Amino acid sequence: MLNNEKYLNVLLLNSKYMMVKIIINTIEKPTTTKVDELLKWFCMELGLFNNIDGNNIDIAILKEFVIAAYKNDGITSLTLKKKLKYPLARSTLIYHLNKIIESGLIVKKGRKYYLRATIMSKAVEELEYDLEREFSKMIDAAKELDNLMIKKLNR
């Protein structure tokens, strides 16, 4: 964990029965107007980046997807590998792509990967919706458990 920040770690089951792990670190948003700094903050907030190893690969990958989303396009892993300034093995790139997919920000459709929505704010809103839906299910299950326990204890 970075500098004792608070975090939330939630596993979600999406409609394709794939687990999505959303980590939310509570980190103060930078006051900058620089794209790269805001992307770094998003990556840190979602547990995709830490200051320990100085690795900016996830930030560079997310930036390419945000750019592609504004062009209403997806990116293949090969195209992404060519765009990045990092010399990466394809397996390393796929590892990083899978981390970002697991966060819920990127989805794979066919051979291409896409930002989850056409703009970053909508992608984050969809993550919020996922969390609200999962917490709603947990509240319903907790109420059901409470009722079952009350019935069991009142016998």
Report what the structure shows:
With 155 residues, the protein is of the alpha+beta class. The chain has one domain (7-153): Arc Repressor Mutant, subunit A (Orthogonal Bundle), CATH 1.10.10. It is 52% helix and 14% strand. It has 5 helices and 4 strands, in the order E-E-H-H-H-H-E-E-H. It has a two-stranded antiparallel ribbon with strand order 1-2. The longest helix is centred in the last third of the chain and has 34 residues, at 120-153. It starts with 6 loop residues before the first strand and ends with a helix.
What key phrases describe this protein's structure?
single chain, alpha+beta, Arc Repressor Mutant, subunit A, two-stranded antiparallel sheet, 52% helix, 14% strand
Computed structural class: alpha+beta
The CATH class: Mainly Alpha
Major beta-sheet overview: 2 strands, antiparallel
Give the helix tally. 5
Report the radius of gyration as a whole number of Å: 18 Å
Report, as a whole number of angstroms, the end-to-end distance.
46 Å
Based on the coordinates given, report the CATH architecture: Orthogonal Bundle
Number of strands: 4
CATH fold category name: Arc Repressor Mutant, subunit A
Helix share bin = 40-55%
The secondary-structure element order is EEHHHHEEH
Strand adjacency order, main sheet: 1-2
Contiguous uncertain segments of 5+ residues: 1-5
Mean pLDDT across residues: 83
Question: How many structural domains are formed by the residues?
Answer: 1
Please state the overall shape, judged from the principal axes of the Cα atoms.
elongated
Approximately how much beta-strand content do the residues carry? 5-15%
